[in-house]
Amino acid sequence: MPSAELNPALLDLRCLACGAIHPASFDASTCVAPSHRGERGILDATWDYDRARRAWPAPTARGFWRWKPLLPVAPPAEAILDPGDTPLVAAPRLARRLGLKALWLKDDTRNPTRSFKDRASAVATAIALATGRGTVACASAGNAAISLAGFAASAGLACEVFVPSYATAERRAWIERFGARLHVSGGNYDVAFEECEVAARANGWYNRNCAYNPFLVEGKKTASYEICEQLDRQIPDVVICAVGDGCTLGAIGKGFRDLRALGVTGAIPALVGVQAEAVSPLVARRRGDGWIDDGRETIAASIAVRRPRNAVRVLREIDESNGAIFAVSDDALRAAQQAFAREAGAVVETATAATLAGLEQLAADGQLRGARVVLVLTGARDA
Ligand SMILES: *Cc1c(COP(=O)(O)O)cnc(C)c1O
């Protein structure tokens, strides 16, 4: 019989918009206090770090669930796909050309379903199992849907996924291969996201949409724990990641702050977020401007998010770390994707290429001379 218990070290959930404290519960979603005027407040888990510290794993431990002192749910009774423990690959040729002291690629394309999204899907699947839900659901441009479909298959759960009209045949085929039910939206990612929210609520499916589900960034933050461990408990100066909804880089920031709170490290890296110029609402918001959707498209489908749902989280993490967020052109994405392959032997999708495109821009400005930098390789599925 599954035991539906949250990790007792998870104290409560705080609204990132208004600060309201919500009780820790598997049913929690977003904060809808009237002061938000319709915008949904994202909830963030508060942790008892003293408790977590006593159970923190030794550097020799392996497996995603070794991080359970700071994960919301215990590992499932029966094994499911195990994400994480991805290599941190040195890229000395790129480092030399860009004038860095060191450059590493956190290669999350080597996860079970080939993307960073697997770290969140593991937590979603474990919660669905623990709470006795038979069906999991998400909306996605591709990677999150494929990821959830694979994890659901490994756990024997039904899976319903919502993709935008432009999701490629290859991405649809991955989803169907894993046996998930595919709903192709009439619109873009933002439309598919709303369709999924409505259907999950109506049907009682466990919703894996990462921004609104307060537990999933807790899975994604494990990448930071691994980076720190792989650098022998040092932290890099800068970590660069492609940004769509903001969950991934937001989670990476939380992971490094966790390590600082635990006393594992003394400092946190500067977080750099990179968006695609044609769809860069977070860059506009950071500048204090409204973003005008002029309908332009980008080749970076995985980060083409017009209404980012984790904006507050990711911008706060960037500020806390003295980081930055900016956008790069599709031409720069194409060039960076080639440079990844030709100078590091790394195959990445166009969204992930934003990391190197962003790094090229910072290096050209002379900002990172002698720095130790990590690029997060979030995905490799271009079609
Ligand atoms: C989802 C995704 C991202 C961005 O993650 P967000 O949480 O939406 O910011 C970046 N790269 C790839 C390949 C992705 O699939």
Total of DSSP H or I helical runs spanning 4+ residues: 13
Euclidean distance between termini CA atoms? 41 Å
> What CATH architecture of the largest domain would you give?
3-Layer(aba) Sandwich
Q: Characterize the biggest β-sheet.
A: 6 strands, mixed
Count of beta strands:
13
Shape: globular
Can you list the ligands bound to this structure? Answer: pyridoxal-5'-phosphate
Order of helices and strands: EEEHEHEHEHEHEHEHHEHEHHEHHE
**Strand fraction:** 15-25%
- What is the alpha-carbon Rg in Å? 19 Å
CATH topology of the largest domain: Rossmann fold
What does the average pLDDT come to? Answer: 95
Physical arrangement of strands within the biggest beta sheet? 4-5-13-10-11-12
| Low-confidence blocks of residues | none
| Alpha-beta classification | alpha/beta
User: In CATH's first tier, which class of the largest domain applies?
Assistant: Alpha Beta
- Helix proportion of residues, in percent? 25-40%
Q: How many structural domains are formed by the residues?
A: 2
